[in-house]
Amino acid sequence: MNDDNGTIRQHDPGASYQPLAGVRVLDLTRLLPGNLCTLALAQLGAEVIKVEDTGAGDYMRGFGRQVDGAGVCHHSVNRGKLSVTLDLKDVADRERFEALVATADVLVESFRPGVMGRLGYDVETLHGIRPSLVIASISGYGSNGPLSQEAGHDLNYLAFSGLLDRLRPQLGPSVGPPLPLADLVGGGLVPALLITAFVGQARQSRRGVWIDAAMAEGIALLPHVLINDLLNGQPSTGPRSSLLDGGLACYGTYALTDGQVAIASLEIKFWLTVCDLVGGLDDYRGKHEDPASQPAIRRRLTEYFLGRSRADIEAVFGGRDACVTVVRSYEEMLESDQAKARDFLVDHPDLPVPVLAFPAMVDGRRLAERGPAPAHGEHNSHVFGALGLEREPVPARPREAS
């Protein structure tokens, strides 16, 4: 939450876990990728200042269910940050922006390559203002190459990466995942990792770096068995044919009377447990990776699972090392005993909506919450006042009913 002078006040017992305390981050991004990147930095203790335009600001505010005048995803991914508004085509606001840059450790932007340069703030200019600045540029395909100026969204990056080609049945079109993987990985977690790694070095050496993070590369360059086999002479045989996308009967999903079950018994010890519990597989105990045995194994597993319910599966396989799991919905996952034991949800009195916890624990507890997401331009007076360059807060917009 904010105290009277606009700074973010710590209020959580885990507040001591802030390795980035004292680091100032300027966030010029919009939408999910950059917001996730800087959320990670804020959760680690950095002061994140969202530098928004004087018009609509971050489009994230308009997405999804509206609570307290903004979308609930905005409340989640922008919590613990400050917000100021600037028009980088205005002379006075350019002075304010450059004064901010001169005090910053990190700048994150997600414009199309070349836009910052056209605004007069290419990497060389920014480093001229602040030599130790860590600059992270998040874009679809990176700053160079024939696709660098190509417009795109997550589905386009998945299409480029080769992953979308695998997300289809043997007949029919691909089906994209319901969450933006390239955005979250290539545009969120990868630049956050690199920023965290380089910011201390840049402060010490007084020499900044430029991180060129392409969302498409966040998926295209993930190392895994299929692509490494391809690199080393193993031809691709199409969807539903490899180790992890349906080629093996012991790694896939099967219908139940009231849902689905996922089986991932790749290692022999897990497969032998499945054989013991399912029955009828004695002839295939050592053949779960044998191509010729796959049709027979698949028929037996299909027959076994189709006659059983989710409750039956949990009773038979629960607590057994077999890598067999009932397929849950998002709602069921969030309500599960595992989610409760690990505190997946943060429901803090200072936050207007419940949000997802940062996906890791430190010394057995979640990272501290640092306050709610800011209103558009909420911290103009506080941030620019400290620089002697006053700017009025943006007038509050009427709150919409939730």
UniProtKB/TrEMBL annotation:
Residue spans of biased composition, Basic and acidic residues class: 389-402
Region Disordered: start-end pairs: 370-402
InterPro entries hit by this protein: CoA-transferase_III (IPR050509), CoA-Trfase_fam_III (IPR003673), CoA-Trfase_III_dom3_sf (IPR044855), CoA-Trfase_III_dom_1_sf (IPR023606)
Pfam families (alphabetical): CoA_transf_3
Protein name according to UniProt: CaiB/BaiF CoA-transferase family protein
Organism: Pseudonocardia ailaonensis
